[in-house]
Amino acid sequence: VQLVESGGGLVQPGGSLRLSCAASGFIFSSYAMSWYRQAPGKERELVASITSTSGTTDYADSVKGRFTISRDNAKNTLYLQMDSLKPEDTAVYYCANLLGRGQGTQVTVSS
Length: 111
Known about the structure:
Elements: E1 2-6, E2 9-11, E3 17-24, E4 33-38, E5 45-50, E6 57-59, E7 67-72, E8 77-82, E9 91-97, E10 100-101, E11 105-109
Parallel strand pairs: 2-11
Antiparallel strand pairs: 1-3, 3-8, 4-5, 4-9, 5-6, 7-8, 9-10, 9-11
């Protein structure tokens, strides 16, 4: 199982980023997928989840209306579109499923 995140970086408040998670080593379309984040000194937070085939999504209240999770089962890739970013969104973002998680990508929101 391999999950590799990309797309993080430094962005100003109000800006946008799109995270990607490339999956391999398992049948991607069979698993629900999630994005988590963890900021220094804080507990890990479940940000968003998406089911395997129906694409039903769920979001933490803190990101609802600003973030969009999606997946492309043909490309074995999970996405997280992040808009209207706030400084409190600064964290390491991980993609994960029941089999494991990736190494994470840093998102920093700062002016």
